[in-house]
Protein 1
Amino acid sequence: MIEIAAGMFIVLALFFFISGSIGLLRLPDGYSRLHALTKADNLGFGLLILGLLLLQMDLLIAIKLLLVWLLVMAASAVSAHLIAQRARRQERGLWKP
Amino acid sequence: MEALTSWQILDLLLISALLALAWTAMAAKDLRRAVALFIAFGLLLALTWVRLRAPDIALAEAAIGAGLTGALLLAAASDEPDPVPSGRISAAGVVLTVVSAGLAVVLGWVFVATVQQADSTRLAEEVFANVETTGVSNPVTSVLLNFRAYDTLLELAVLLIAVLGVLALGPARAGYGAPGPVLSLLARRLVPLIILVSGYLLWAGAHAPGGAFQAGALLAAAGVLLRLTGTTNGGLPGDGAFRTLIVAGVAVFLAVGLSLMLAGRPFLGFPVAWAGSLILAIETAATLSIAAILLAAFLAGDPKHAAANRGSKTWQRTHKTQGHANEL
């Protein structure tokens, strides 16, 4: 039962990762690409960690997974912010309809 | 034909992605794009080492190959104009191609020869049979610091010579512009955590994947983060202390080896009872040296003058043109 739930979370995570990657490749300008990548990947990554946590009996490994989740979230939020800030300053690559 | 297992499919994907990334990184016209592809290549290579059940090398590849080398190359590429393709084939290019092709043939032959000799006694079995005499239970560390301690001592000596080259470049590069509040906050939270993990890797090296090179690379990464967020010398200490740090690894290694000789043992022939502590002492000094040396390479010069360099004309010029870029 737990395995099925974990599997569903992980498959859902993969769906979001793939959507994020397609967004990165297909969207027209830097901001929208960043938007697709960070939002979808954060959701996908959270679901992936959730799925792995369900499969984990060992408390220590579970804590490490949570720590990895926190660190990746912090790093990706900050790097997305930096990329957006730099793009804003350069005002390059804006999509004009 | 046998059906492929899912692991084999993953391995094949990994290998194809590695080859494709290597090719695109070499072929990229834009230097920064090439570096980004190189970093991705390093991360996939680390995954490949995990698949080969070599977590020690995976850690080293991720920390040094992808992380620090990536940061070094990015810093170098931001000062370098993109190369203009000349369209002509140079003589040096032809020679390089021929030599590389020859090397590839030799490596292929070595690979085939090794695979065919799989039945003879492998060194790995000897290591596993004798690992309890080395003072550590991680076979990789037992090879690096005990059976093959000579090699590791000479590797540290090579690093020491390399940093002499870095110091010969003169004062360190100018620092980076002041970071925004978000990056500063992340750096303030991350640097202590990185130092803690580095200490853990050093300690864990005795019984699990880890050791001086991985721990040193991580410690250097903390310094890189400090430099990117405004600490011009990356947290390296002043002149005398810096010089002590870079020679510490080789010095402690030699001191241990020579003391053992005075005690009537062979050079670096650790007595079983003391081996664990001696190896930890050597690895601690080596971690500090490796971190200081890698960080000096990132500063691209002597950290002593890094702070004083701020007022100079070079710094102001770099700062004006790259102030925003450097916040990344």
Protein 2
Amino acid sequence: MTTPAVSTSGLAHTFPTPRGPVHALRDVNLRIEPGQFFGLFGPNGAGKTTLIRILATLILPTGGAAQVHGFDVAREPARVRALIGLVFSSENSFYGRLTGRQNLEFFAALQNLSRADARRRASELFELFGLAAAADAPFQTYSTGMRQKLNVARALLHNPPVLFLDEPTKGMDVLTAATLRTLLRAELVERQRKTVVLTTHDLEEMESMCDQVGILEQGQLRAVGAPADLIREASASVVYRLELVGGVNGLAEHLAALPIVESVAIASQTESATVLDLTFTDSLAPERDLWQALLAHAQRVKIKRFGPKDDGLARLLKR
Amino acid sequence: MSALPSIPESRLLTPAKLLAFIQRGFLHASSYRLNFFGAYVGTALSVVFFAILARFYGNARPAALAPYGGDYFTFLLIGGAFARYLSLGMRHFGRELELELAVGTIEPVMVTATPPALALLGPSLWTLLEGIALMIGQIALGALFFGADFSRANWPAALVVGALAFVALNAWGIISAAFVLVFKRAEPLGWLVDVTLFMLAGVYFPVQILPAVLQVFAYALPLSHALEGLRLALMHGDSLVELWRYLLILLGFDLFLLPASLIAFRAGLNHVKRTGSLGHY
């Protein structure tokens, strides 16, 4: 059995606050294999960043243990730091008046790279992330996307086998985020075989990038699995909402009689609108059958909206 | 496991890393050109100010200056140059740390292969070196162009007094940095500390002319003993043996403040790692 790249057992962290203790993590048990692209998925405040910071030795756990390639984050932080790179969610973690190159060379020296190696490595990374033209411009003139790319480049300076990314596409436009995602997946995992742990609350990011996902909510790990499996499981119990213009009598009974429909509930009904919540026997909504059933109904109906009642994130968290 | 990178403890603190911090500090400081050159011009002007102030006294030789040889300009120059540098030692760790917290660079530095103490105190290295350069510049300017009298100076004795004072005041500075780690601000009443310190420590006049009550407070400060010892070594040529009282007192401050600073710093670091507040400001 190989040593996992990242593992936690009973990991807990409680922040003392003036309003009493806040349990940011509770009994988190996790195992991430080397070479895996692992997503920590959950809403704001779920404990994702706290978990990443514990693994990066920035916060001490208050309970349980965490290891990176077998080294304990609390007892052997220097050994852990040699194995990891951390990409911060904040884009302002550089010296604004220094150039991108000066920033990278400074951090490279702190990672024990010689002056010559630091220069060579910085140039390689500027090329890789398409920042070569801006390498000698002050960091404060960089756009959000460029800053985040430099953030990733910094984490790769010492070529660590494990990379932690805390919401790396936060604040980026759609196109730049997509480019960075492709680069991260293709370069870091598929070519360099690094272990990547990414925090996100973006369903699309999770689906497109991760091999495995852990769903965190209120500090607890609710589920771990492949993104497609988790989404399929979540879809099995999807409640669809059908909103119609005007009061429609007898429609709930009409739809409940259909073999494709498992249940119908009237969410609200007034003279101006009718709102029904439906679950189907199949995990995917058989929309064509539903439209035919609506057309067959005695009263003419006008559809205002039809779709899942909750968004993807909420569905996954409710599973 | 053997293929994994690991860093021997001996490579955590290297001259290259110290140099990287110094270079980074220089690049950052010199990017504010007006401010950067202004510090040097201001330092030169302070020497001119001391010369004018001393000229105002003319040939008057106040009794309080007798133990130092009576030359008020040299007295002022030593007080101004060393007090500025030594008081810098008291607060530059905290101030630089405050800046790093505001910029958001502390956490990225802390996750590198750098010991936490260097990660948190390293940002001040340039300021310390620049302070030495400015202090030497002030002394040299005073001696070369304004007739400061160092003909009887015992430089080795002054160096020992300066080194002991440096340790004590930088240990104080580390306590101030620990304060910043926890409370995010170095000294809520920094300006008051400045005024009090410069008045009590005898920068512009001997401590002996202060009222007796204030002298008690003055001699509770390592800076007062450091300035007296330095003046006696540089103006009167006192040897280490003659300076034993000052050396003993400064050593006492060192022995108390240095362990206290290490305990405070460790406690501050543990606090931010437990509360997750390292990046807060």
Protein 3
Amino acid sequence: MSPTLIALYIFVLACFVGYHVIWGVTPALHTPLMAVTNAISAIVVVGAILVAGSDANREGWGALIGFSAVFLASVNIFGGFVVTKRMLEFFKKKERPSQPEKRASQ
Amino acid sequence: MTLSPDFFGISYLAASIFFILGLKGLSSHRTALRGNLFAMLGMALAIVATLLQPEVHHYIYIAAGIIGGGIVGIAIATKIEMTAMPQLVAAFHSFVGLSAVLVAIGTYFSHQANGHLDKVLLFELSAGSIIGAITFTGSLVAFGKLQEILGSNPLVFPGQHYLNLALTLVALGFGANFMMANHFPSFLIMTGISLLLGFLLVLPIGGADMPVVVSMLNSYSGWAASATGFTLANNLLITTGALVGASGAILSYIMCKAMNRSIISVILGGFGGEHAASPHASAAGKPVKSVSAEDLAFALENSSKVIIVPGYGMAVSQAQHAIKELFQIMKEKNIDVKFAIHPVAGRMPGHMNVLLAESEIPHEIVFEMDEINNEFSTCDVAFVIGANDVVNPAAKSDKTSPLYGMPILDVYKARNIFISKRSMKAGYAGVDNALFYYPNCSLVFGDSKVTCEAIVAALKDSH
């Protein structure tokens, strides 16, 4: 079996895993789900690192492209995880109903 | 350093498992934060393992990119208002798309230097670049519409779909030429056309369909990551991209079902916006009952069970904190308060839940449509705040309505209905709301935040 075909196997099976895991997500958490999948899709950072760190892209356009790809993916990773955490903490707070009001209505 | 290929294989496998556990964590409120932590661990593991890869020789651009991107990302994420989440997510999708395009170009450069360019790789590079480019510009348009830089009305012109089809074929033609002849300029032209296609595909989609578009772009960003994984023969990227792609696809499906629209009709666009005002708007001549916030406060005070239905209008007027006060004062008066959320309320899936959670409404009293719909007939007051199309009974009764067939919240069954509304303007779908003319329905005109504050004040006075 060619490596591409093996990759295809993995891809198709992963789609099924994704399908089953995602249907289990509670609708109330769909916005955090989107934010976290957003952060996760920045896994292209792996490709970006390989580009930015390769000998061929040491200078010139290659370097600029590599840096930009790492930069953009990193914005997503950090931004995505932090904003997801912020949202999920709102949901967490509800566990203790008698908490003092933290935020005045603006 | 000489680490065996299996070391990377194991690390990437572990990272994939962390991502799956992370998403699984979101199946309940209790495990969600831990899930996010798992996903972070997976990402950290993936990055560290990649830095140790033998072909990574230069760290300066990588370090600069990660640190710079980290600072920008954290700064945005900690400052962003929750009402602006849809825009933020759209902007982030565009970054993934652009990053995938850049990785495709950069990978071409590095493989060219190694002489590892075969047809399969060139095909995979083309796929990654096309999907990435469409995700990039499509998300930019979605961002522009959500941020109201661009009008939310669909942009429709004759021959649009034929133009898109033609452009797709031309892009594929250049892609084929790139693959067969290893002709790099063809690759750039193909990417350029794909960028244009991203714009053209999202421009005709109206504001009402934004939840679907945002979900769809979420899905695309996943497929872009998967395609990148194929080019790099990296199983972690393939797996992770597939998870995200499946997630976005399922969310799009849920949104479409909640609007009774097919994904095809959403993609073809043209739905929603002013021009869609149907003949039903002619009903505007009929009388509606308009009452003051004090009247509503009186009605609430004499109720034992109230259901609040928030919509995007709540987010627009930032009324969620005033609603929290309203909820608290009603709770003190022993009124049973529940919140009912339609799947497409807001501009992205689950948006209302986050806004209510932010203003510390306990999630135990926030219900999805199917959970609460049979309770409207037993409630004294249904209070609709900035929602419109999702409570329009025409979706059930009027076969000629564009909304016909869309599942709605059965607000019309409530004993008394109050609707906080800015004006008599039609909803996002451009359809007049039959509910306004029900005899038991009263409208409270004005900004919803101001209205809620007035109700709170009136309830406090009556102590």
Protein 4
Amino acid sequence: MQTIELLYVVITFIALLCAFLSIGMLFYIGKHHVKEIDRIIFGCETEDDSFFFLMLRVPNYTLGFIWKFYAKRAGLLEMYNHFDKKFKRPFMLNLWLSVIGMGAFLILIYMQKYVLA
Amino acid sequence: MSASGRPISDKILYHLISKPQSSDELFHSLYDSPSAENRQHFFALNSHLTPQARPGQVVFMTPPEDLECRASETALRETATRIDQHTCGLSEINAQLLQKHYELIARFTDYSGMGYGLSMHYFRVHTYQVKTILNELTRLYSRTYTQHGNFNQEAFFARRRGLFMQLDHVMNTMVGHKSMGLELDTKRRLGISTKSIIRKLKNHPMPLKDLPEFSNKFTQVAKYSKRLGRAGLIGSVALDGLHSVAKVEEACTVGSQRDCTKAKFGQTARLGGSVGLGYFGGEYGALGGYTLCNLVFGVESLGTSVLWCGIIVGGASGAAGGYYGSKYGGNAAQYTGDIIYKTIYRH
């Protein structure tokens, strides 16, 4: 195996690891945190709580936690002000996992197309 | 006479049977005051129909006197019989789903894994949204009547107009114009019941070269409609898994031992990549669309950000992201599987 190929394999494992950890985190956040946020923002729990709906909501809430301007525009200011750092931690961890994982996948696609081809 | 290679006439219509009913009931549900000639032609063309029509069957409709259609009649009968053989086990629920959302399901047959799951979800949240708007309409009527004792209020008309526009938009985004089948004007002109869902064969969502191709594509769409109800996250991943297993089986049956082992490595990695990047693609696609939409049409401006940005824009961009993520992630990871195989077996 050439060095470049070894690098490709390592990046694949990082990407997959991040993906599956992030999926696990999404379930965890959905079960423990999102319902609480819903109660603060909407006053009740949202009816549709499927995995795919969480894929839309969790990154949205994460962005609301880290960017005040966005929180204001998206009506999440109350959430931004209400929760402490400890509550926000899983959201941040999930964000980092998905940034690293997505980055790793993009590198893989680039390497496959332009470096290893 | 086979219709292979013959262009499909614009006048051939088809209807998917969604519930068990007698052939006579079916015929009367399709036509408004039909003539004896119509009746004779309908049953001659659809000779596959037994006295009791079953869900999943297809019936064709052509103008009795049209020469162009007459030339395709034998092929139409053969096509309907072939479809009958393949859709035998279709339940009433699946047949109804197929009848109502044929175009949509046909588009999804191209999707896989996370992209597929996200698309299903996109459709489901649209349905939820339609329900919400209809509830809001009901509340508006009841509130207005309780407050004023009549509906002759400017504010009521304005709000109702707004809700109807929202409903119109959601419905169009959800199913597209074509999914509703033939337009009312055309139905009235042809003497076809306005309540029935009838489609033009020429406007089939997956392009058809000839008539026999219709039975293959129809069967494919029917199979997807069966899986549709079961496809949550597990279903989506399982679909991808089945795809991988099928590829491995194909390589092990048709190819050499070497092809078989290589396929096992490649397809296992492909499955991981497809799920992984499908997930990221869906997440980032949804987030990108949702964020942009929120920043432009935020809560302060309209108060509909969750509705439009979350459901319409976020859902659509998430589905697209999931689809492309599954595709490219699968390819990239499959390449890793190939590298590992090459290293272990030194081929």
